[in-house]
Design brief:
This protein has about 1200 residues and is of the alpha+beta class.
């Protein structure tokens, strides 16, 4: 007998036998494929955002073994771990860095399928499609941020809630605990969603528990508040709006009346609330007695049988320890009033180092934190065990390991447990008043949502109000009444609650702190009222829209109130509104559309969009009838055609066809058409933001976004590496390569996003704000903040191009007023500009003149530039371009420093110039202190004289207005260029006033003007004959005087020819009597004989800026060498007396080798150089440089 046939393998079975294929799953598959395409297409194209670069760099550090420490400033650890995992499997590049976000975004789009029982057969499809085309969801699914992760976990938590409501299986409670842990590891916005869900669950429990016990109709408490609140709100608004026009006595009377009404409303509200509370308490006591007296405990609803109670226990007990910082914040307010100190500084939760420092210095403070946190954890555990020991224990085994493993990075960062447990909420509570981003409260409601999320925003908000008007009109009145009352109280009651401070020296209660408390209470009441307005226990199907409405209203209100408002947070508002809209569309499409189309509904559907387009042309188009130019006639013709089409064709056809339908059918057809139009617009805005302008600041969707210049720059660097590092032969010697990568230098102002881009450039050089030596790197990146400091180190051997590093969108929507809004509708030009910005995302500002952009320069060495931009044929070897200033650069260290910042004796404030007498006593023009100070040869303070002149007037003798120049003659007399008193003052060696000369006057650059008129004299020196030479800087001349101020001669005049000047500043004479002048804006040094006959000139590679502080000085050493200062580049340049460059030293900084705007120079008899390091408020001494 033959054996029975072997059972078929799973792989041999037809697909239909193991998988149910229906239209729902087919549609899901199609949506999934579209989600994959839209999320993964060209994922690496967009340049890296500032924050995104930080996220990926930290992830890369974790991937490469450098570790990771949680810091709540950059949100939860989940992103860094999953991005590092992506690097582990697929390598580190721009695509794999964004791949996890894209995958989570794909999964998010499919989740509405699992809500189909509640959203409906059509509703889940509509919701999934809205998530598919949502601009914010799509954009930030392709972006390395935390938001997409937390949103996936939040939507899954919402699904778990409804699964548990439906099935009451413990698995859903365990799932809620695990998802809650994951959500907390993703982002701190979890606290917002948990608060919204908790309010819903508590409201549901309260509603279901009290409903059979308390008999009330449409919530009499709310009705009472509405009746009281609406009239009072009207009175209050009318009073506030018009009181400035009333007599003072009437304002005083009405103020007392309003104050009395406030107190009366508070009293009545308290009394009424007390009566209701007593009534409820009596009902509950009677019920308890009934239950005790009777064995049948099923007579009333058991609180343990309400599903929301179990879910509230999960969300509450596992969130309670993480809410400890909120308790700290409350205790801080009390502690500050009692002891004028914080109970614990919330900002210290930022990182482990801050906590460690406090632990070492203030152990009692840390002890408070540990005790209070431990009590919160213990209390949560006790409540959990009291509720259901088995379920809570299993849930804890899921929640805490996930939490601990992520925040401690698999136990490698023990402090991460505390920064996660306490810092997640603590840090962001401390940032609430910072208002990061500086956006207005209407940022989402009037800016990002109308700009992008048109479909879910309009349909969702309209749905909620339609539902309330249609099914709950009485409760809507209650809802609005409570809102009006709450707003009134928030505006009016605060001044009456601000009392005196009971603790001497402690900070008083601030209006902002009390305001936040009132706002939080208002938000909680608003979310509760959303629940009570929507839910009807007699209609079980109302619970799901109640949940969606509560979720949507909660996010709209809380995110609008929260301090930080950013474009990526828009998705958190869009997603619940998409669910609301999907639920509404399911109701909307529940009709016999075949019948409607048979009667001509298609014409209405086609003509309504046409009518909208014509209306936009009429209302937002160019103003007609303005003239007869071609453009004006075109505008007029367009307007006329639009009006004719609208009135002659569209309107009549709509009227004729519309008569075939009932008003309800017409509304349904028009609404479906409107939804379709909004969907098309939403797709268009998504396409523009994601695929056309992904890194362009014309999109309000972006913020601190790296421009595409960054991507082009790194591509050029990569190309240059490939060409240079692949060379062989002599050319190879000009460039050092490491692992096929060239050396790239970058500063702290261009580090993000280039830290990420250059991660594999092992020889990349980070030089901070300024380097300490000339560059040898083929490519140097310099942020705009460091351009002046870095320029001397680039010299003339680099060619530069300017790029945009990061830019921000325009923010003309800020500070909106009623008048500004009305002007948009009154003024046709403003109306057209607004439409252009909204529809086309085009602005008057061009990309090259964008006002909100941070720039950097891309500098390439000249000898390798051709290798970057010439890609044809063999690249000839270019000779290296040597910058003489670089080759002459040397590092010198000062032997000592004289002075320190301040106003006391021996202290300096912005000293501009110096001079030494024959005994090596040092005299300093202490400019910002308005005085002269004398130091002995050892740098010890001797004396000071002079005070600041009164502002805007010429001061009396012995006072100074920014003295910039100083000189000493052979007798020890001191001459001071009192710059902005426009004069020269002479003192003896002890500071006794002798004489002064000069007044203010402008000679218009003519050398032969009045010699006793000065325009900002900057420097003074003594020539070989003992005469006084003064650079009359503003008048473009040099003046010669006798020692007593008698005019002898004048030289120069405005111009660039030999002997002429443009902003001459420093002046000095050598031992042979030759005179040297720093001709600043001509960027040269001019040399003259003792009679001021022109001898020579040479250019100086410096002094590019014409700023008021870029004033160079000059000094001659005993060997006749010429030293000049280069203030803005913080260096000193040494020449021979015939102009040969000998040395360059100094860089920006505050150590003994660095300067900060060096100005005046002087030599002593031994050849030691003294430098007035004005920005560092000191004098540096160099030994015979």
């Amino acid at each position: 007998m033959e054996s029975t046939a072997e059972q078929k393998s799973f792989l041999d079975k037809p697909l239909a036998a193991v998988m149910k294929i229906d239209w729902a799953r087919t549609i899901l598959l199609a949506i999934l494929l579209l989600a994959i395409l839209t999320r993964l297409w060209d994922l690496s194209y967009r340049a890296w955002n500032h924050d995104e670069a930080i996220h990926t760099d930290w992830s890369w550090n974790l991937y490469t073994g450098r570790g990771y420490q949680h810091n709540p400033i950059y949100h939860g650890p989940f992103l860094y771990h999953i991005t590092a995992l992506s690097f582990f499997f697929f390598g580190d590049n721009d695509t794999t860095a964004r791949l996890p976000n894209a995958l989570f975004g794909i999964v998010l789009v499919t989740l509405p399928f699992f809500f189909r029982k509640w959203l409906g057969r059509r509703g889940w499809v509509a919701t999934a499609l809205m998530l598919l085309i949502s601009p914010s969801v799509l954009y930030y699914s392709r972006f390395n941020r935390h938001d997409i992760y937390v949103e996936l976990f939040v939507v899954l938590m919402a699904l778990v809630i409804w699964k548990f409501f439906d099935e009451r299986k413990d698995i859903w409670l365990y799932s809620a605990a695990a998802l809650l842990a994951l959500s907390y590891t993703a982002m701190e916005t979890t606290f917002i969603f948990v608060a919204i869900f908790a309010i819903f669950l508590c409201a549901h429990f309260t509603f279901e528990y009290l409903r059979p016990r308390v008999k009330w109709k449409d919530f009499l408490v709310g009705l009472f508040a509405s009746v009281l609140g609406i009239p009072f709100f009207g009175i209050f608004v009318a009073y506030q709006a018009s009181r400035k026009y009333w007599p003072r006595w009437l304002v005083s009377v009405l103020s007392k009346l309003v104050s009395g009404l406030i107190r009366l409303s508070l009293l009545l509200g308290t009394l009424f609330g007390g009566i209701i509370g007593s009534f409820i308490a009596r009902q509950l006591l009677e019920e308890y007695k009934t239950v005790q007296d009777n064995a049948d405990k099923k007579t009333l609803v058991d609180w343990r049988s309400i599903p929301s109670f179990d879910l509230a226990m999960i969300f509450g007990t596992f969130s309670m320890p993480l809410l400890t910082p909120a308790l700290f914040q409350a205790l801080n307010a009390i502690w500050k009033r009692a002891f004028n100190a914080d109970f614990f500084p919330l900002s210290a939760f930022t990182d482990v180092n801050s906590l460690t420092q406090i632990a070492q210095s203030q152990f009692d403070v840390i002890l408070r934190v540990l005790v209070l946190t431990g009590l919160m954890i213990l209390l949560a555990a006790l409540v959990g065990f009291w509720w259901n020991a088995r379920v809570w224990t299993i849930s804890a085994v899921l929640f805490w390991p996930i939490f601990v493993i992520f925040f401690t990075t698999i136990f490698t960062n023990g402090g991460g447990f505390f920064t996660g447990l306490l810092g997640s909420l603590g840090y962001w509570l401390s940032q609430q008043e910072v208002q990061r981003g500086g956006q207005p409260s209407y940022y989402y409601l009037l800016v990002t949502m109308p700009m992008y999320e048109l479909l879910p925003y309009i349909v969702g908000v309209v749905t909620m109000f339609w539902y309330w008007l249609r099914f709950r009109p009485a409760r809507l009145v209650v809802f609005l009444g409570w809102i009006l009352l709450a707003i009134t109280y928030y505006i009016a009651i605060r001044p009456f609650l601000l009392g005196p401070n009971p603790a001497p020296g402690a900070a008083p209660i601030t209006a902002s702190g009390l305001g936040d408390t009132l706002v939080i209470a208002f938000i909680a009441v608003l979310i509760l009222l959303t629940f009570f307005t929507t839910h009807d226990s007699d209609q079980p199907t109302s619970l799901f829209p109640t949940f969606l409405f509560t979720w949507a209203v909660g996010t709209l209100v809380i995110f609008s109130w929260a301090g930080e408002k950013m474009p990526w947070l828009t998705m958190h508002l869009a997603i619940p509104l998409a669910f609301v809209s999907g639920w509404a569309i399911d109701q909307l499409l529940d009709v016999d559309w075949r019948d409607l189309f048979a009667r001509g509904a298609i014409w209405i559907a086609l003509l309504i969009p046409l009518a909208l387009v014509l209306f936009a042309m009429i209302f937002f188009g160019a103003t007609p009838f303005q003239g007869v130019t071609l453009e004006q006639l075109s505008a007029t013709n367009g307007f006329i055609v639009a009006v004719i089409l609208l009135l002659v064709f569209v309107a009549p056809v709509l009227y004729v066809v519309g008569r075939r339908f009932t008003s309800r059918e017409l509304v349904r057809i028009a609404t479906v058409t409107g939804v379709f139009v909004l969907a098309v617009l939403t797709i268009r805005f998504a396409w523009m933001a994601v695929y056309i302008n992904p890194d362009n600041a014309v999109e309000t969707m972006i913020y601190a976004q790296g421009s595409h210049d960054d991507a082009l720059a790194i591509q050029e660097i990569n190309d240059l590496s490939q060409r240079l590092c692949a060379q062989t032969g002599p050319g190879k010697q000009t460039v050092q390569c490491d692992n096929g990568k060239i050396k790239v230098a970058y500063d702290d102002d261009s580090s993000w996003p280039f830290v990420w881009y250059l991660r594999n450039y092992t020889n990349a050089q980070f030089y901070g704000k300024t380097p300490n030596a000339p560059f040898d790197a083929p490519v140097v990146l310099v942020g705009s903040a460091n351009q002046d400091a870095v320029r001397p180190f680039l010299g003339n051997k680099y060619i530069s191009r300017q790029y945009k590093l990061i830019w921000w969108p325009l923010e003309g929507y800020k500070e909106l007023t009623v008048e500004r809004v009305l002007n948009y509708f009154r003024d046709p030009q403003q109306r057209a500009d607004l439409f252009t910005a909204w529809f086309f995302h085009q602005y008057k500002e061009s990309a090259n003149a964008w006002p909100y952009a941070h720039l950097f320069t891309f500098n390439v060495r000249k000898d390798v530039a051709a290798m970057l931009w010439n890609y044809t044929g063999n690249v000839p070897q270019q000779p290296a371009v040597q910058d003489e200033y670089d080759t002459k650069f040397t590092k010198l260290t000062a032997s000592r420093s004289i002075g320190a910042p301040g106003t006391g004796n021996g202290q300096l404030m912005n000293p501009k110039n110096i001079v030494l007498d024959s005994q090596s006593n040092l005299y300093v023009a202490d400019s910002d202190n308005g005085r002269v100070q004398k130091f002995d040869s050892k740098g010890e303070f001797v004396r000071a004289w002079g005070t600041k002149s009164p502002p805007n007037v010429v001061g009396p003798q012995g006072t100074f207005s920014e003295p910039w120049g100083i000189a000493v003659d052979k007798d020890g007399n001191i001459y001071v260029a009192d710059t902005w008193n426009h004069r020269i003052q002479k003192f003896d060696k002890d500071g006794k006033f002798l004489t002064m000369w000069g007044t203010n006057g402008d000679t218009r650059g003519i050398a032969q003007g009045n010699p006793l008129q000065f325009y900002g004299p900057r420097a003074v020196t003594i020539d070989k004959q003992g005469n006084v030479l003064v650079t009359d800087t503003g008048n473009k001349r040099v003046l010669k005087f006798s020692p007593n101020g008698e005019p002898l001669n004048q030289y120069g005049g405005v111009g660039g020819d030999p002997g002429q000047f443009l902003e001459q500043v420093g002046i000095a004479a050598d031992k042979d009597g030759n005179i040297y002048v720093a001709d600043t804006w001509n960027q040269r040094i001019q040399k003259f004989s003792s009679n001021f006959d022109f001898i020579a000139q040479w250019s100086v590679e410096a002094w590019d800026s014409q700023s008021i502080i870029n004033k160079p000085y000059i000094a001659i050493d005993p060997d006749g060498n010429v030293f000049v200062s280069d203030p803005e580049l913080s260096r000193i340049i040494k020449f021979s007396n015939d102009g040969k460059l000998l040395a360059v030293f100094g860089t920006r900084g505050n150590d003994l080798s660095s300067f900060n705007y060096p100005t005046g120079l002087a030599f002593d008899a031994q050849g030691n150089l003294y430098v007035a390091d004005s920005g560092n408020n000191r004098i540096l001494v160099f030994s015979k440089p």
